[in-house]
């Protein structure tokens, strides 16, 4: 039987696979650098509320329109990527704050405070408003928002489980949805009209009472 007709003809050997990977690695690294530059430039423009046309983004990134559309299907696709990257930054911030807590109750409070801080901190709140506005809210990118809801729920599940939840998966998801909705609600309120610490304590108490029932 000839090699061409062999059932395994399309299967690359380990050395051949390594050769392919070596040829792709430089291109993958270059693509990663380009995308990182675009995301950073877009995030800077969007969080500052500056114009964020494709021309503005590629100029700030030092790249071309061709490079932009090589990686992103559209401006909307790019904004989704910026919002998603911001979500990852938020989750990393939550993990950092919650890891310093000594008890599950402190961890839950730290997580809730970290999310609401995106709205009640004047500087962060202004940047968050610009990102939310650029992203068009949940109706614009429901999958991006849904992914954040589940990822946030995963971060909150530990302390919620330790606080006695009999259904930590559903309870943490409900808490996640409540938190993100509360954060977006507070984003558009005048911060002089409410007590940020009281808002945190109210939601902590609400969740704790729910877990106790």
TrEMBL record:
PANTHER family named in the record: ACREF/ENVCD OPERON REPRESSOR-RELATED, ACREF_ENVCD OPERON REPRESSOR-RELATED
Region of interest: Disordered:
1-32
Q: Could you tell me where the Polar residues compositional bias lies?
A: 1-16
Protein name from the UniProt record: TetR family transcriptional regulator
For this chain, one GO molecular function annotation is: DNA binding
Q: Which residues bind DNA?
A: 53-72
Q: Which UniProt keywords apply?
A: DNA-binding
Lineage in the entry? Bacteria, Bacillati, Actinomycetota, Actinomycetes, Mycobacteriales
Give the source's domain of life in one word. Bacteria
Pfam families named among the record's database cross-references? TetR_N (PF00440)
Organism (species): Rhodococcus coprophilus
Domain HTH tetR-type as annotated: residue spans: 32-90
